[in-house]
Specification:
This protein is an alpha+beta fold. The chain contains four helices and nine strands; from the N terminus they run βαβαβββββαββα.
Length: 160
């Protein structure tokens, strides 16, 4: 991509596969992120990890914790860089008040699902309001996936 031009499609940077296994996603939100220039450049090279990340609401503002963005290799201020610092997320006030109500319910949490650049070239995070799965729920979802894979294999053989 040329830096001055707008992107034509969405560019996925990182997906939190663990979240889909550990949690049942009830609702999704799209939020902007406040980043430094070197963090944006590092994201453009695809160096981000969402595995241990979570979001929390502090004093009416939404923050993302433990999302790891590796330092940009050509940056000059690497010594001061904190890869897992808390990052502010940008949502409308109405959406934040909805989230406060949902997270206040027992067992619900905010989990980052995906980080990507939208069509305009802005970094966005897809947040999910999630509820933790029990062990039997995880086993059940794995069985459903296995059955679906088998059905897809059978349908491929029928077509040939």
């Amino acid at each position: 991509m040329i830096w001055g031009k707008k992107m034509k499609s969405v560019k996925n940077i990182a997906t939190n596969k663990v979240a889909f296994h550990m949690f049942t996603i009830i609702e999704k939100y799209e939020a902007g992120i406040v980043l430094t220039g070197n963090e944006v450049k590092s994201l453009r090279t695809g160096k981000a990890n969402l595995k241990e990340g979570f979001a929390r609401i502090d004093k009416g503002e939404l923050f993302l914790y433990n999302m790891h963005i590796s330092p940009y290799s050509f940056a000059t201020d690497k010594k001061k860089y904190d890869a897992t610092r808390k990052r502010k997320l940008l949502l409308h006030k109405k959406e934040i008040t909805k989230l406060i109500g949902k997270v206040a319910e027992r067992g619900f949490t905010l989990v980052p699902l995906q980080i990507y650049f939208n069509k305009r070239g802005l970094a966005k995070v897809s947040l999910g309001v999630a509820k933790g799965k029990k062990l039997y729920d995880k086993r059940e979802s794995l069985k459903k996936k296995a059955i679906q894979r088998e059905e897809e294999k059978e349908s491929k053989f029928r077509l040939k």
